[in-house]
Specification:
mainly alpha
Length: about 180
């Protein structure tokens, strides 16, 4: 009877790799994860939890089929550009929310606040923004009144608040601008 070809999956392969006891062993685990990814294995949450390699985490965060695996990878990811891309483009709202929560770069937060299609992603990006000009733009132009109001609430620049009090699309946002 012919032997079945080796079909590695991330969990069975990881069980066969000894736990790291030194740097060499850690490299063995990384090599094993790389082999598993190259062989077509689907990464698991355990795979993600066992690595801190940012390149591997970024690849998993973008490419993994399982949204929970992507979410777990995003939670460990530090690359701001990749986090911004995921916050705008990932198909799963929970993955996008984790990505925007990890963002700290003001330029990328501004990009997410303006470009994300989902208001549940734009709102937390706005909540972390400090750029007064971007906040004013969002306050005047966002299609969701709750996001516009959140942007106004973050504004401290009096001339911009006055502009919003005059030019805002809806009365609730104008009133928030007047109260601040």
């Amino acid at each position: 009877m012919p032997k079945e070809p080796f079909q590695p999956d991330s969990d069975s392969y990881l069980k066969s790799v000894p736990r790291p006891r030194c740097k060499t062993a850690s490299l063995q685990v990384i090599a094993g994860l790389t082999l598993c990814l190259l062989a077509g294995c689907k990464p698991s949450v355990k795979t993600v939890e066992r690595t801190n390699n940012q390149q591997k985490l970024a690849k998993i965060a973008v490419d993994a089929e399982d949204s929970y695996v992507r979410q777990t990878a995003v939670a460990k990811l530090t690359d701001q550009a990749t986090l911004a891309k995921i916050a705008v483009e990932d198909e799963n709202s929970y993955v996008r929310q984790v990505a925007v929560a990890r963002l700290t770069d003001q330029i990328l937060l501004a990009q997410v606040a303006v470009e994300a299609k989902d208001s549940t992603i734009r709102a937390p990006a706005v909540a972390k923004l400090t750029d007064q000009a971007v906040l004013a733009k969002v306050a005047l132009e966002d299609k969701d009144s709750a996001v516009r109001a959140a942007a106004v609430a973050r504004l401290t620049d009096q001339p911009l608040l006055a502009k919003i009090a005059v030019e805002a699309k809806d009365s609730a946002v104008r009133e928030v601008g007047l109260c601040l």
